[in-house]
Amino acid sequence: GLKKKEVHVLCLGLDNSGKTTIINKLKPSNAQTQDIVPTIGFSVEKFKTSSLSFTVFDMSGQGRYRNLWEHYYKDCQAIIFVIDSNDTLRMVVAKEELDTLMNHPDLKHRRIPILFFANKMDLRFAVSSVKVSQLLALENIKDKPWHICASDALKGEGLQEGVDWLQDQIQ
Ligand code: GTP
Ligand code: MG
Fold this sequence. Notes:
The chain contains four helices and six strands; from the N terminus they run βαβββαβαβα. It is an alpha/beta fold. The chain has a single domain, classed as Rossmann fold (3-Layer(aba) Sandwich). The protein starts with a strand and ends with a helix. The mean pLDDT is 97. Bound molecules: guanosine-5'-triphosphate and magnesium ion. Guanosine-5'-triphosphate binds next to helix 1.
């Protein structure tokens, strides 16, 4: 059959935001794992959409590993940035990390798409995706196409909408 176009994606965000859970849900059901543990360093995963074959670098969000992120900026063609919508206390930390990466020389002025997941929408104290985009000041992102989706990675809700958007950006 037709060979799908390969895309390198970087999955970033604070520890415990749900990155690995999201990537796991995007894989075919027979490739999904049941128990997800905090990522050490990073892990390379693959999933496919109708026209694309994604290779995802699922990075650890723990403070001590965040210095690894920048080494993968050069080769990535898209970014998935995950936020725990329930963790309003650390939203400012998420914003700092986002600002740092947006200003990195290997990403600055590159029109690579950024997909945000406002994750953990199922939790009682989660704020809306509109509120998350305000707290992260996403309207300031002028040089890259971006999109934010509310998601519940445990149920898999909101993930397809995000990936459809990403696929449209890359075509
Ligand atoms: P690091 O690898 O440490 O950077 O974390 P991570 O961003 O990969 O988070 P991970 O996917 O390991 O999920 C952390 C915890 O949040 C796990 O207990 C998940 O089950 C839980 N979780 C992930 N997504 C959701 C969600 O949408 N809702 C709820 N309620 N829990 C979630
Ligand atoms: Mg992880």
